[in-house]
């Protein structure tokens, strides 16, 4: 007989503060125990099944996992080019997912606009062939099929209201925007060949806090030489840019990084990006700008004939490989799937690097700044909530309405010997 010993609140979060024997803060971090690495569990599975399995284990961002996983399988197959129809339908799915995710963040503060935009994003995903939570759009080499003309027209009829809502919401948040908190690390996002942010880009761009370009347009094939994990396999692996090394190579991903690596390709979002950069804007306004960008991108796709007509899969065959990397830039940032396959098609090694894992050093810095600035009688809980929302980990408590995050703050004293041993 099973016994229920404890009820865990969906908005529960644990912050661990490490202090030395004199009470000085050594570190502050979010406990990511609810977000275990699934990599080892996937070894021995048919490699073709890995995207499906990851979508369901990491169910908060299934569209991003769906597309990253299919891209990894295509890299294994040596496929490098998709038909325009497949590319367009995938982009509709991905931008629809981005709009849906971003809109959900503003339900409490901008209810009418956010609900309208969330419905629009879901309609875009349905038009792309994924009407339910788990997507069914992409297949290796393309997509299941083009968008029907009726689905395109129905989505087009809703576009005017959606773009007005997205523009109004983003404009309001940029106008009210406070300066973002400083981050000493680099910003990393996917880009097109001109260095402009591209959520389904094939190149990775990295820019330091001082504006120096570390990687202008690195391909996925170079992944092993681009990013390494300081603590491989851990929930908080502390990834870093190999060219800069551990510590100096720490980086962040997500809307802030997407806006900082290059100019957006859609006009209304670009105008707000310029204003946002001028004031050193924060993550909340960045999320709204990227939502507007995705709505504009959907509008451009609706005008494309490739969306509704043309071959949906490629007949071009590539040279098979045993190591494939697939990535996308989702609403929370860069997501990477890397699969190593045996000749029999069995996964012998898998790496799933989520935005949350990559942003953990950034979030830890945000949390420590709040702890250091808190009054003597206890931590600034609203400040901790704001820090968590800024980095936006893919866990349920990130969506908690303001003031309702069930924070548990634990202090751990570090023995002097632990510090001398290089903790």
Question: In words, what does this structure look like?
Answer:
This protein is of the alpha+beta class. It has 13 helices and 14 strands. A hairpin with a 2-residue loop joins strand 11 and strand 12. Helix 5 runs antiparallel to helix 6, helix 6 (149-175) packs parallel to helix 9 (267-278) and helix 11 (355-372) runs antiparallel to helix 12 (381-391). It is globular. The termini are far apart.
Unreliable runs: 1-8
Q: Span between N and C termini?
A: 43 Å
Main β-sheet, spatial strand arrangement: 7-6-5-10
What portion of residues belong to β-strands? 15-25%
SSE order, one letter for each helix or strand: EEHHHHHEEHEEEHEEEHHHEEEHHEH
Taking all Cα atoms into account, the compactness measure Rg is 21 Å
Number of domains: 3
Outline the biggest β-sheet: 4 strands, mixed
**Mean pLDDT level:** 91
Helix content: 25-40%
Q: Tally the beta strands.
A: 14
Overall geometry:
globular
Short key terms for the protein model shown above:
423 residues, globular, 3 domains, 4-stranded mixed beta sheet, disordered N terminus, 3-stranded mixed beta sheet
In short:
This protein has 423 residues and is of the alpha+beta class. 40% of the residues lie in helices and 18% in strands.
Helix and strand topology:
Blueprint: E1 12-19, E2 25-30, H1 39-42, H2 50-57, H3 62-77, H4 84-104, H5 111-127, E3 138-139, E4 142-143, H6 149-175, E5 186-191, E6 203-207, E7 213-219, H7 223-226, E8 227-229, E9 239-241, E10 251-252, H8 255-260, H9 267-278, H10 283-302, E11 323-330, E12 333-341, E13 347-353, H11 355-372, H12 381-391, E14 406-413, H13 416-420
Parallel strand pairs: 1-14, 5-10
Antiparallel strand pairs: 1-2, 3-4, 5-6, 6-7, 8-9, 11-12, 12-13
Helix pairs in contact: 2-3, 4-5, 4-10, 5-6, 6-9, 6-10, 9-10, 11-12
């Amino acid at each position: 007989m099973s016994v229920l010993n404890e009820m865990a609140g969906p908005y529960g979060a644990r912050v661990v503060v490490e202090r030395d024997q004199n009470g000085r803060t050594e570190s502050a971090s979010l406990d990511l125990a609810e977000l275990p690495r699934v990599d080892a569990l996937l070894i021995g599975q048919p490699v073709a099944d890995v995207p499906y399995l990851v979508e369901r284990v990491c169910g908060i961002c299934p569209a991003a996992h769906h597309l990253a996983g299919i891209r990894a399988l295509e890299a294994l197959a040596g496929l490098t080019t998709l038909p325009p129809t497949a590319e367009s339908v995938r982009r509709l799915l991905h931008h629809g997912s981005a709009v849906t995710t971003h809109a959900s963040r503003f339900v409490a503060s901008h209810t009418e606009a956010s609900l309208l935009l969330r419905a629009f994003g879901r309609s875009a995903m349905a038009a792309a062939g994924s009407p339910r939570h788990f997507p069914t759009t992409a297949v290796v080499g393309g997509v299941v099929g083009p968008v029907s003309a009726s689905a395109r027209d129905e989505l087009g009829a809703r576009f005017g209201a959606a773009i007005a809502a997205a523009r109004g919401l983003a404009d309001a948040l940029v106008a009210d925007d406070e300066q973002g908190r400083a981050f000493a690390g680099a910003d990393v996002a996917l880009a097109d060949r001109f260095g402009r942010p591209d959520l389904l880009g094939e190149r990775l761009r990295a820019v330091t806090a001082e504006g120096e370009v570390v990687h202008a347009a690195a391909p996925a094939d170079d992944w092993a030489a681009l990013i390494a994990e300081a603590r491989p396999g851990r929930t908080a692996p502390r990834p870093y840019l190999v060219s800069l090394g551990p510590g100096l190579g720490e980086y962040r991903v997500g809307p802030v990084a997407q806006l900082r690596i290059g100019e957006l390709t859609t006009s209304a979002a670009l105008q707000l990006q310029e204003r946002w950069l001028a004031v050193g804007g924060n993550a909340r306004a960045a999320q709204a700008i990227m939502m507007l960008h995705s709505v504009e991108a959907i509008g451009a796709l609706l005008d494309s004939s490739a969306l509704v007509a043309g071959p949906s899969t490629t007949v071009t065959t590539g040279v098979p490989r045993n190591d494939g990397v697939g990535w996308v830039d989702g609403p929370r940032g860069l997501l990477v799937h890397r699969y190593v396959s045996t000749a029999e098609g069995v996964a012998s090694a898998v790496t799933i690097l989520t935005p949350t894992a990559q942003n953990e050093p950034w979030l830890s810095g945000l949390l420590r700044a709040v702890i250091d600035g808190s009054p003597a009688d206890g931590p600034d809980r609203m400040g901790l909530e704001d820090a968590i929302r800024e980095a936006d980990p893919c866990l349920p408590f990130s969506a908690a309405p303001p003031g309702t995050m069930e924070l548990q703050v634990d202090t751990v004293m570090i023995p002097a010997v632990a510090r001398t041993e290089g903790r």
